[in-house]
Design goal:
Blueprint: H1 2-17, H2 19-28, E1 36-40, E2 44-50, E3 60-65, E4 68-75, E5 94-101, E6 112-116, E7 119-125, E8 135-138, E9 140-142
Parallel strand pairs: 6-9
Antiparallel strand pairs: 1-2, 2-7, 3-4, 3-8, 4-5, 6-7
Length: about 140
Amino acid sequence: MKQDKSFEEMENFRQVLGDDFWEMISEFLPFIGPRVDLCRGEKEVIVVAEIPGIESQSELTISLHGYTLNIEGKILKKYASAEYKFLLKERSSGSFSRSISLPKDCALEHIRADYHNGLLVIQIPLFVHKSGEYKEQVNVHFHQ
């Protein structure tokens, strides 16, 4: 599969250049979306996204369009005001969007999303799904 080959090539780059290089280069690149891990087990696919600063469902939208998972939201800097001037600004804020292609054997109607301590964890059971045009809004369960 093309996606698997691309992942292998990126992993090779990471090994050759080292993690320090990617950490350094990420400081110069604009924020394109949350960092995401996509894992596949025997019974499910798990997506883990780093999204610190989200406090409620109204700040985060997860949707499915076929086998594409879309994560959108807005990270607000609630502590920033006109009386303070940033001396150093490393944390990302503002709107973000991320799309992830899912395997075709995901049981999309059984998707579950949980948010806790800045991590969004999406669990999708596996089985052969008959329709590739499944479209649904996904609710996120927030844990305090």
